[in-house]
Specification:
338 residues; single chain; 11 helices; 11 strands; seven-stranded mixed beta sheet; four-stranded antiparallel beta sheet; binds pyridoxal-5'-phosphate; alpha/beta
Length: 338
């Protein structure tokens, strides 16, 4: 695993923040130039968010030292690239179409990203993926369930890649709570190069607090801890995360799945709809007869959806997030009028 880390990061001596060592209550803290007034936010947050990690650890049945928290899962993915991929030397392999941020993050880090097209039924092309691996391939990123195609990949295909690839494999499980398929988290101790991200942004309804989770081997977590900003997750976010983890997000998930089924049934009746793809997520990928027309019409009606029609594998497709009952009603009404 050590060979996977960039040399400068392996040698890096991280910043030691004032709060690294002296967290016990009762100490008189005169070390971090904070104001002593205006509690509860006068102090820097715990750089390792231990209270929140303990809760996640209990809920997910993963050790706290296998958990990293970031400013959204986007930060977690960025840090994986930053710590493990040497700019202009190493490369990342991902699939297409998938989440646009992988491209952006790779480009910002000046790391080549190789995209392997999915098959016509939106599954992994394992052979082509393996063929595109070379000695500088450090990371494979798979979004599962995949955005924007909304399906899950065959578990056996991902397992095959885990068995054959020696670099890191990051599985982005942003939508896993909406899926009936199993998370890969239960394999976290079986494959040392497996890294999984999940997020509070979707099924918890907390996109605004910016909290993402990365699970991986202790070595990977320690490496990310060296690279991250000392206080990358703020006190308000930690507080809200602790509170919301106790609340049950299944009520949201059940409602969305029910609304998704309603929306699917209503869309199916429309003559302008050609196909609605299977969805393990909180959105539907819908193929229209003329996506551009529908997109612009909806925009004029103040309904904003995502245009995914430019990709070879998703022509005339729009990605529609499942809204609440009244939002979905308006959407269907407007589409009927069209
Ligand atoms: C929405 C989404 C995320 C969430 O990112 P955050 O930074 O945690 O808000 C991650 N991956 C995918 C594929 C997404 O669609």
């Amino acid at each position: 695993m050590k060979n996977l880390v960039r040399k400068n990061i392996e040698k890096l001596i991280p910043y030691s923040s004032a709060r690294n060592e002296f967290m016990e209550p009762g100490n008189i803290l005169l070390d971090a130039n904070e104001l002593p007034f205006n509690e509860p936010f006068n102090r820097y947050p715990d750089p390792f968010q231990m209270e929140l990690k303990k809760k996640i650890s209990n809920k997910k049945n993963v050790q706290t030292d296998q958990i990293f928290l970031g400013n959204g899962s986007d930060e977690c993915i960025d840090l994986i690239i930053r710590a493990f991929c040497e700019p202009k030397v190493d490369n990342i392999i991902t699939v297409s179409p998938s989440y646009g941020m992988y491209d952006v993050l790779a480009n910002i880090n000046n790391v080549e990203i190789r995209k392997v097209d999915l098959t016509e039924d939106f599954q992994l092309d394992v052979n082509t993926t393996i063929k595109s691996i070379d000695q500088n391939s450090k990371l494979i990123i798979l979004c599962n369930p995949n955005n924007p195609t909304a399906n899950s990949f065959n578990r056996s295909d991902i397992v095959e890649l885990l068995q054959k690839f020696e670099g890191l494999i990051l599985i982005d499980e942003a939508y896993i709570d909406f899926s009936e398929k199993e998370s890969f988290l239960n394999l976290i101790n079986d494959y040392k190069q497996l890294v999984i991200t999940q997020t509070f942004s979707k099924s918890y309804g907390l996109a605004g607090i910016r909290l993402g989770i990365l699970f991986g081997q202790t070595f990977v977590i320690e490496t990310l801890n060296k690279v991250k900003y000392p206080y990358n997750v703020n006190s308000l976010t930690i507080q809200e995360g602790i509170k919301q983890l106790d609340s049950d997000n299944s009520k949201w998930i059940e409602r969305i799945i029910k609304e998704k089924q309603n929306l699917r049934n209503k869309l199916k009746e429309l003559s302008i709809v050609e196909k609605i793809y299977n969805s393990d997520t909180n959105y539907l990928l819908v193929k229209f007869l003329d996506a551009e027309l529908v997109y612009n019409y909806l925009k004029d009606q103040n309904i904003i959806v995502r245009d995914r029609s430019k990709h070879r594998l998703t022509p005339n497709c729009l990605r529609i997030t499942v809204g609440d009952e009244s939002q979905n009603k308006v959407l269907i009404k407007k589409l009927k009028e069209l």
